[in-house]
Amino acid sequence: VVLQEVYLVSEKDKRKWSVLPRTEYPKPLIFHDGRIAFRPTPISTLCMFLWMPLAFLLAIARAAVFIFLPYIFSVPLLGFMGMHSRVITSPRSHQAARRQLYISNHRTLLDPLYISAVLGHHVTATTYSVSRISEMLSPVRTVRLTRNREQDKGLMKKLLHEGALVVCPEGTTCREPYLIRFSPLFAEVSEDVVPVALESRVSMFYGTSTSKLKFLDPLCFLMNPFPRYAVEFMEKVATGWIGGNKCSSCEIANHLQGEIGKRLGFECTSFTRRDKYLMLASNDGSL
């Protein structure tokens, strides 16, 4: 015998209903995968397929501008091609610093390119599992970390001695308004850092994934009709002190995660890069 409970809603109950304010909507998922950044209704899906041939050609053209032209020409040209960017603050002292460590939240693989474009000079970016194709096509220098703490610390110090270095302490991208826990290694590399708050928006394709086709990530981002980026340079911070009190590398990492989160209006989490890949790809992200 199967027993079922049936609930009926009366007309009286229905009259008490009201529209739920957007502020009370369920929060978005912290981790999710897939390329589509919109609700795939029949009309919107048809528009996507009609857009894709032009989108592919536009993405190739945008990538060529990124790779082959200097920033003084590429930035306005990319704006003409629909790539909207906004620099909220960019102090001249940061532009002049050639051996500065910059840390930022991680939205897409293009994060170091936007930071480099705002600074007006090339930087070096540390990576984990970026595809070889992305490394070869990158207009800025990329260096892979080994996940050996002492070895990576020495490598980052060497890179910083050679020039400006960009590090994303989250270790992986996050699409939604959340920050993944910051690795504290950067705080042991330099006496001070410049935090950079980044926000990116897409309307059609996500430029991030956990699949083996990660070389498509930048291409998918560039295929959006009007991809957007906002870059905000924050004040330089000493890595050994918070409010005049001496602190550990973990404390400064948590502090800067919170400060970048406040600036962006993002929620900080204790999830790690490994957590993300275990949830989405059933591996630890080392593949």
UniProtKB/TrEMBL annotation:
Keywords tagged on the record: Acyltransferase, Membrane, Transferase
Gene Ontology CC annotations of this record: membrane
Highest taxon in the source lineage: Eukaryota
Chief place where the protein resides: membrane
Gene Ontology molecular function terms on file: glycerol-3-phosphate 2-O-acyltransferase activity; phosphatase activity
Localization per record: Membrane
The Phospholipid/glycerol acyltransferase domain, residue ranges: 100-201
GO aspect biological process, one term: cutin biosynthetic process
UniProt xrefs under InterPro entries: Plipid/glycerol_acylTrfase
UniProt keyword annotation of DNA-binding present: no
Name under which the protein is recorded: Glycerol-3-phosphate acyltransferase
Organism listed in the record: Musa troglodytarum
